[in-house]
Design goal:
By secondary structure, the protein is of the alpha/beta class. 26% of the residues lie in helices and 32% in strands. The strands form three sheets. A six-stranded mixed sheet has the order 2-3-1-4-11-5. It has a five-stranded mixed sheet with strand order 8-7-9-6-10. It has a four-stranded antiparallel sheet with strand order 13-14-12-15. Strand 7, helix 4 and strand 8 form a beta-alpha-beta unit. The relative contact order is 0.14. The structure holds phosphoribosyl ATP and zinc ion. The site of zinc ion has 3 residues, from loops.
Length: 286
């Protein structure tokens, strides 16, 4: 009998949509009707457990689930032993120390003797130790950003993504402790059957991620400009070149990465490319 890989994902919250979307893009069909705790994928040997994110590292460590999608921040804070298999590219945020905008704390050294409110006492404690700062940590589970205003703390250590929560609460970041995104974690000793399923899922995840980081580009150019244009299209073995009906012109097809997308398009235009079309790629198989 074929084995099934058990994956833990967040039941609801900021990582739920990204997790389900990624599975879907990998061709794994999961229906989560009726708010079920466990659902078997229809077309892949995967069983999905819907849990609170804080419980995911422990479940994977203890082999209640084989793998999980969870924020790196939650994993590090939990101190649980699992392997990080892959960064997933969603749920990006940072754990930062922030202080009142108009207060007198300007750098981390000024935190000595101060009170810091956080939901991440473990990560904060080791940061303070490493930097030899002696401050008291007030652990609170939510609405950390209001702590300075109500006199509970002098500073906070909380997750930031857009920065609008800090802005609204008249706080400013003075230090980032951890950059985080959703990661795939795995139990440290999977059976060989489960490892094979994991490899197959991972292959699909990497193909989806690679496709997102690249775009298919089509352009027209006069033949005498092709050499300059090829020089601007690195990273692939060779572009496809087709003659156009208009003599002396060619159509060039290639793949360019998202990283320096706009500057590369501008360079292509400057080099003589015309009629540039950019097309998203759905999957990219290495
Ligand atoms: O119920 P459960 O325990 O599963 O969920 P939860 O309420 O603990 O977590 P949830 O759903 O809020 O967040 C899940 C994960 O999303 C976090 O562990 C992070 O890995 C990731 N993530 C990404 C974030 C943010 N961005 C984020 N901005 N988690 C929380 N925030 C909060 C932050 O705490 C602050 O209150 O959003 C506010 C700041 O956002 P900005 O955009 O105003 O800067
Ligand atoms: Zn949580």
């Amino acid at each position: 009998m074929q084995e099934t890989l058990r994956i833990a994902v967040q039941k609801s919250g900021r990582l739920y949509e990204g997790s389900m979307k990624l599975l879907k893009e990998c061709g794994v069909e999961v229906s989560n009707g009726n708010n079920q705790l466990r659902v078997q994928a229809a077309n892949f040997p995967l069983e999905v457990y819907f849990l609170r994110d804080d419980d995911i590292p422990e479940y994977v460590q203890d082999a209640v689930a084989d793998i999980g999608f969870v924020g790196e921040n939650v994993l590090v804070e939990s101190g649980k032993q699992t392997d990080i298999v892959e960064k997933l590219g969603f749920g990006k945020c940072r754990l930062s120390i922030a202080v009142p905008k108009n207060g007198n704390i300007a750098d981390i050294q000024s935190l000595n003797g101060k009170r810091i409110a956080t939901s991440y006492p473990g990560i904060l404690r080791s940061f303070l130790q490493q930097n030899q700062i002696s401050a008291s940590i007030h652990e609170i589970s939510g609405s950390v950003e209001i702590a300075p205003r109500i006199g509970l703390a002098d500073a906070i250590c909380d997750l930031v993504s857009s920065g609008s929560t800090l802005f609204t609460n008249e706080l400013k970041e003075i230090e980032t402790i951890l950059y985080s995104e959703a990661v795939m974690i795995s139990h440290q000793q999977l059976s060989s059957g489960k490892r094979l399923i994991l490899e197959s899922l991972l292959f699909r995840i990497r193909s989806v991620k690679k496709a997102k980081n690249n775009k298919y580009v089509l352009l027209n150019a006069p033949n005498e400009k092709l050499k300059d244009i090829f020089a601007l299209l690195p990273g692939i073995k060779s572009p496809t070149v087709l003659p156009l009906a208009a003599s002396g012109w060619s159509s060039v097809h290639s793949v360019i990465s998202e990283d320096d997308f706009w500057s590369r398009i501008e360079s292509l235009k400057a080099a003589g490319a015309e009629g540039i079309l950019i097309i998203p790629i759905e999957k990219m198989i290495a």
